[in-house]
Specification:
The structure holds two protein chains of two kinds. By secondary structure, chain A is mostly helical. Chain A has a domain of 116 residues. Helices cover 67% and strands 7% of the residues of chain A. The longest helix of chain A has 31 residues. Chain A is flat and about 70 Å long. Chain B is an alpha/beta fold. Chain B has one domain. An eight-stranded mixed β-sheet of chain B has the order 3-2-1-4-7-6-8-5, sandwiched between helices. In chain B, helix 9 packs antiparallel against helix 10. Chain B is globular and about 75 Å long. The N and C termini of chain B lie far apart (76 Å). Classes of the chains: A mainly alpha, B alpha/beta.
Chain lengths: 203, 432
């Protein structure tokens, strides 16, 4: 298959779980950053780290998280400044890693969400609703993100790969899972406060 | 080198999985198993004489609140004394204590003002214990507000002769102030309502937290009191007594209210101090705990996990850096596939979001509603904790290597009372 820009896009397969089957992923070429582009990114990351570490004390946790992201991006920029030819991944590699990671994440989320919801409520519709919404969210979000990230790396630069992988990666699947879980526990709390709910307590 | 990095990564996954399973067990135990209650049902029996110890340094803002709460507590006044220690305060603390002492004879002031004296909570407590006449010592920080029946509940735990120390439950009062105080409320709920109670249920090691707790006089005095060179005298006492064969009890119904830090800076300093003190105790007690003949294997295992709670966040940070290095070395294969599945699962079910299911279980037991919705924000506070806890660990390492003297760093208070006005108004009240 050929994209409109002339880039070759193919669908490759990789073995994930023995006896279960292969996993398919999109393979295409990404844009390698120039020296100037890498340098600008390094300087901007460093500046933002310095600014973020000195300002906004009321939002400390967010600033620390942001600094970690910028640190990863700084390392990535420096890598492309000094050893551009040694960057070990192509966009096809990233695509493969993403898919492997994402399938792992879907399985993990299903497992953790199942255990965590079952722990709070042993039976009832709320539990199943929370579980299925979580799994569905993770699936849709994981797919949309896959396309968006491939587009960013293909259209702009491979320089962003590390940051997308480490900082804007699966954390957000879990963030969604916890948000849905919080709503679920809130509903169960209401249920337990009701007359029928109070009868469920064993002590 | 790469092999070492990969091995470290896998070890950290295992460590996180162990903690994850531990907290699932605690949550399950708290929600579905029979709960062990303290000796509260016999608290009408003849209770011993107790000394309440209040170490204070520049606590003028909050003293009236704790005095008021303590004076309203249900305990035979003939068997109760309150020793208020003014530890080198430069605000109206000393003055306020004196005014209260005049009005209420059960309050005994102790002023530590000699500039050559060592300062800090453990020293202040040791001085207070040397003049105290109670059989049981109960300790509170000045920003705590005990509930009416707290003293009786705590002290009744000593009806069991093998209990050496007992811990009550801490509940923040200023939970609605901002997101931080809401998150601290959630953390406290998970920590006390679930974690401490489950450890007590399972005959593991609940932790004495340095405030809202009580201990037997003779156990401390035979060893010369608290170790004055350590910041976490509470954790040290927990391990010291547990390794001597004493039981640490926890009473979830013995509630005490605290003022949680309202700014991230104050919380950061507090956590860094806790980490420093806790890690000092870890250096000192890890070997002894592992060699202990008095603890069963499972108790020993859990006691080690508890000792490591302020070390693991730093090790996780290191794992994160390890992961980045592996990425640029082209060794991503280790973090794809099943190993990565385990990593992601464990990291998010114990690290990133704390044991969120444990906090949710606690919130549910407490009947919380909208407060639970802040659960996803725990993710970002994890990075904040990782940062500050790591600094605390470095502090502890430097303390150990250089034999540096540890100074007490007080947590900021937020009560709106003006200490000077309080001193004056309380002075008038005392005169009346």
């Amino acid at each position: 298959m050929r994209a409109t820009t002339g880039t070759t896009v193919t669908v490759e397969t990789v073995l994930f779980i023995p006896w279960v089957g292969d996993v398919s992923y999109i393979s295409l070429e990404g844009a390698t950053p120039t020296f100037t582009f890498s340098l600008i990114n390094a300087v901007v990351s460093l500046l933002f780290i310095l600014i973020a570490s000195q300002t906004n004390r009321s939002n400390r946790p967010l600033m620390i998280y942001l600094c970690m992201g910028l640190f990863v991006h700084l390392v990535s920029s420096l890598f492309f400044i000094f050893f551009p030819e040694r960057f070990p991944y192509s966009l096809a590699d990233y695509s493969k890693l993403y898919i492997l990671q994402q399938i792992g994440t879907w399985l993990t989320i299903a497992l953790i969400s199942g255990v965590a919801t079952d722990l709070i409520l042993s039976r009832g519709g709320y539990k199943y609703a929370a579980f299925f919404i979580t799994v569905l969210y993770s699936f849709i979000f994981g797919c949309v993100r896959y396309v968006v990230y491939l587009y960013i790396l293909y259209k702009f630069s491979l320089l962003y790969m590390a940051m997308l992988f480490f900082i804007f990666g699966v954390l957000y699947d879990f963030l969604g899972m916890i948000a849905i879980y919080a709503l679920f526990v809130r509903s169960v709390s209401d249920l337990m406060s009701s007359r029928s709910g109070r009868e469920v307590w064993r002590w | 080198m790469v092999t070492i990095m990969k091995t470290y990564f896998i070890i950290m996954i295992l460590v996180m999985l162990i903690y994850m399973v531990r907290h699932i067990v605690f949550s399950y135990n708290r929600l579905y198993s029979q709960q062990k209650i303290s000796c509260r049902d016999i608290y009408d029996s003849d209770l011993p004489k107790i000394s309440v110890l209040l170490p204070m340094h520049n606590e003028g803002k909050v003293i009236p609140l704790i005095f008021k709460s303590l004076l309203e507590c249900e305990y035979d006044p003939d068997k109760l004394e309150i020793i208020a220690v003014n530890d080198h305060s430069t605000d109206a603390t000393g003055e306020i204590i004196d005014h209260y002492a005049k009005a209420y004879p059960i309050i005994r002031p102790l002023h530590r003002l000699d500039p050559d004296q060592q300062r800090g909570k453990p020293v202040a407590l040791n001085d207070a214990m040397s003049i105290a006449s109670g059989e049981i010592f109960v300790v509170f920080d000045a920003d705590y507000r005990p509930s009416k029946n707290l003293l009786k509940k705590l002290v009744s735990a000593f009806c069991d002769p093998i209990v050496g120390v007992v811990m009550g439950r801490v509940i923040p009062v200023n939970t609605g102030t901002n997101l931080l105080t809401n998150l601290l409320n959630l953390e406290r709920t998970g920590g006390y309502q679930v974690d401490q109670q489950a450890r007590y249920n399972l005959n593991l090691l609940p932790q004495y937290g340095g405030t809202v707790g009580a201990f037997r006089k003779e156990l401390l005095m035979k060893d010369g009191g608290f170790d004055e060179h350590i910041l976490a005298e509470d954790t040290e006492l927990t391990y010291r007594l547990a390794l001597e064969g004493w039981r640490v009890a926890y009473d979830n119904s013995a509630e005490c209210y605290e003022e949680a830090p309202e700014t991230w800076d104050a919380r950061g300093k507090q956590v860094r101090r806790w980490s420093r003190g806790h890690n000092e105790v870890m250096f000192r007690y890890l070997g002894r705990t592992l060699r202990s003949q008095r603890l069963r294997f499972i108790q020993k295992f859990d006691a080690v996990l508890l000792l490591m709670v302020y070390t693991v966040p730093f090790l996780l940070g290191l794992a994160f850096l390890d992961c980045i290095a592996l990425f640029f070395l082209g060794k991503m294969s280790i973090i794809a596939g099943w190993v990565f599945v385990l990593f992601v699962g464990a990291f998010n079910a114990w690290g990133n979001f704390a044991p969120f299911y444990e906090i949710a279980a606690g919130a549910l037991l407490d009947g919380m509603k909208n407060e639970i919705l802040a659960l996803p924000a725990l993710c970002f506070s994890f990075y904040f904790y990782m940062w500050n806890i790591s600094f605390g660990l470095f502090d502890a390492l430097i303390d150990m290597v250089t034999n540096r003297r540890v100074d007490w760093i007080k947590t900021d208070r937020y009560a709106e009372s003006d200490p000077d006005k309080i001193a004056v108004s309380n002075g008038k009240a005392a005169e009346k």
